[in-house]
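Supplementary Methods S3. Complex input for the pyridoxal-5'-phosphate-bound model.
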Amino acid sequence: MRFAVTPDDVLARLAALRAKDAPTHGGRVLSYVYDSGEPALDDLAAAAIRQMQPVNGLDPTTFGSVAALERDLVAFTRSLLGGDDDVVGTVTSGGTESCLLAVKTARDLWLAAHGATPGAARPRLVAPVTVHAAFRKAAHYFGLELDLVPVMPSGAADAATFVARLGDDVALAVVSAPSYPHAALDPVPDVAAAASAAGIPLHVDACIGGMALPFWPDLPAWDLRVEGVTSLSVDLHKYGYAPKGVSVLLQRGRDRQRAQFFATTRWPGYPVVNPTLLGSRSGGPLAAAWAITQTLGTAGFAELAGRALRATTALRQAVEGIDGLRVVGDPVGPLLAVATDDAVAADRRVDPHLWADAATGLGWVLQAQPALRQGDGSLLPHTAHLTVTPVTESVLDELVPVLVAAADAVRGRPRPDAGDLVAALPPLVGAPDSTTAAAVLAGIGLDTSSIGDEGPGVGAMAPLLAAIEALPAPLAERLLVELLARLAEPR
Ligand SMILES: *Cc1c(COP(=O)(O)O)cnc(C)c1O
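Predicted complex, serialized as structure tokens:
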């Protein structure tokens, strides 16, 4: 047949686009990407995806390979995470889908137990304020009241404060192992004991920690070994080193998990039985994760986690040695958050977002996280987030001097003040429409017609994050929706 463009030319275009992306390998981006530092694993994943490419994961009775790979992945993660024969599981498309399904399951079981219908009753979802945003999304999608519990300055939930929020109208309690923003390990055993006594299911969100914490030294119990933990999510596209699109949701008890499924025979097409949100789905990431777990085995993951542990320890020490910065709390797992050290004089303080921007200028990307006022009035400071991967250990000699130099470059400089920007906003009545939102974005220097064209990011993060904090959340959210929506509009 005649092609409009030759495959070679199309692939060359793709390569040109990819060349402008942030680097996915080599440890220079300390979020989003999880580089094992082992190119053989990437090659293996690609080969497995290629074999699985034409398969439809929708129907494991037609494509038995899908069921076989899923069984192996559930067995591998269940055994790693302390689950017994009563624990079953599902491979999903990612952490968000695992979290959504945990919430949907708990909601449906709560509604059934209370003889209620969706909409008529709104059960609560209780979680620390640091819980991943996927749970806000889940509460929004599935009609639960989100009850967010303030955390301690360390970023970890306080067990007594948390437990006091449990009650008969709670469909699900959620804690993190560890939390994404601060790498704080929530008090799983204490919360689990109270939840279990009250008959409330408890989800442990181990999306980021699940493949690394089993190899972390000196941790209290946090996984399915803890009685009272009824479900757990673990992402294989993070510290399972698989390409994006694969996570596992483990549930204690077959009957609990069956509530996760959707089935219907009441339409004129094929009988639909879906364990996940999607219908047709790729078998590629599943096959890649399967191939990697089979190849590495537990010992392989232990070795990679050891590298990440050594790198995290070294980075923590390096940051603690930088005047004006501090590590938040007592991070658990291969990630950490960095805040200003307010204990030193103002002229010695380092703002974490200015620091992150300075590091970006030197070729290393840290992630800026906003401050948050908690329900009890206390403030969680704005921070820079570092996700540490096995490859980080091999680039510490470059990274540590960059972190020091970036701090030296911005020490004593105050954070950008978003006050002027907010004052300069046009008067807005209600939610802005798309045209107005785009005009506001342009007014604060974000030109949606060119972002991403010349490389990663939207420019300096410090002023953007300051603006996000200063604006009313619904307005900031609407503006960011506009920004992202316009990126995908045909130009
Ligand atoms: C990454 C993450 C999620 C969401 O996962 P996605 O794979 O990005 O959808 C949920 N919880 C925690 C703690 C995470 O780190």
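Residues 284-320 form the longest helix (37 residues). The mean pLDDT is 95.
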